[in-house]
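Sequence in, structure out.
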Amino acid sequence: MSESWQDSTRVSSVSIADRLETVKSLKEDALELYEIAKDKATGEHYLHYAYLHRNFAAVGPEAGQEEIFHQLMPLASDDVLGIMFSDAAYEYPGHWSKPFLRNGPDGDYVWFDPSYADQEAENEAIGRDIEEQLRLFKQAGELSQEEVRKLLERLDRHDKE
């Protein structure tokens, strides 16, 4: 049996072209495509999303050139059944919350984890809280060694939560 793409950090487009087959087309129009696809070698299912991108930011002959990008999100059996028979939502980006393969200009696919956005928001909230605690500390005007120690302890407790 072939290696699962989920065990690889980088997957060649040749491997995907050779092994991926459509199980069910979900939506297709001039700009995007959704389908449930299966890796013929492992039996694993993926939600395949492809979209057309026009590069209007480029200068010169590449301006307005069309590119098609592909993304493959692994699906569990329940996910496959839910999409096929229960009209479960599958649209990108709203329902793509777990790591998925996406291709790039070099032709290979790499894993992308969309949860970084949640982590980024959490880190920003922590930063705002620290900033507020520092503002209050400065406003109080008590800069003794004991007060600095208390501030650092509060910040340390917050970091461990």
